[in-house]
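Researcher: Last one for today. Full complex below.
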Amino acid sequence: MMIDRDMRKRLIVAVANRVIAGAEELTDLDRAIGDGDHGTNMRRGFEAVLAAADELSDKSLGESLKGVGTTLVMKVGGASGPLYGTLFMSLGKSLADDVSQEQVADAFADAIEAVKARGKSNVGHKTMLDVLHPVLGTLRGDGDSLAARLKVTAKRAAEDTIPMKAIRGRASFLGERSVGHMDPGARSSELIVDAVADVMEGCA
Amino acid sequence: MNKNVGIVIVSHSADVARGTAMMVEQMVGREVPLGWCGGDPDGGLGTNVEAIMAAIDKAWSDKGVAILVDLGGAETNSEMAIEMLPEARRGRVVVCNAPVVEGAVMAATEAASGATLEAVRRTAEELTPV
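Model: Here's the assembly. Have a good evening.
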């Protein structure tokens, strides 16, 4: 699959707009179990990404992903900045403009490891990893309509964080009280995956 | 070149960071290079990689820099800031696992004696309950 400039721009704009549109919901989720700044922080980061969408898409896929990551690191202002920044910067390391699904899956697997190291966290700790990891499983799978399957996986995975107990981040201070709320980082990851899938389906 | 390890204070709040720095200056004096920052890029509560990098630069010493942080995002952003430093500096900056106010004062006290970065870190981390 060739990810040309037009595709890069559509991906960047779709992801940024989805996160910005979801900012209020993310903040509400974070208010329940965190410090209530996830939406505001992510909006600030992705508004900066959106403002730079043209120059970012001018670069190769790898460089534009790194650019998105660096922008998030510099602009987000919470732990989600380095976490999402690391995700995108790691993805940018190995992806060429012409990529296969397998190459994307491999890059995604590396990026997940980088996020784990950055957050000193793992799958099952009620974080963004609990969405990213199942999404990797779907990327590794076969079958028709990958985009539709990615959406279903991401949505279900975010919902699956509701009964989990937080082990990392601010929510872990709450212990048992974090149970019963969706993790805001899981939800923002779902939004990003969903926006990418929209572009893949050509409906963004 | 400064002969003492530098100390950087990173808080979600600019007021906490500044207040902690003032305590360090008053209790330890000015012979320890000191940098501090707090707040997100818009001036709200949070931390900010660019500001942390600037604070490291301000507190730079060839003996290294010890960073004291308050909560989660401050630690993650500090680690990110360290990774974005020039390679020659990267290995000489550490984040201490210690309470920010007490840790900063203890670390600075140790640093003022000319201690190594590892000794400064150890002194600050003695405050952490196990």
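The mean pLDDT of chain A is 94. The CA atoms of residues 6 and 201 of chain A lie 15 Å apart.
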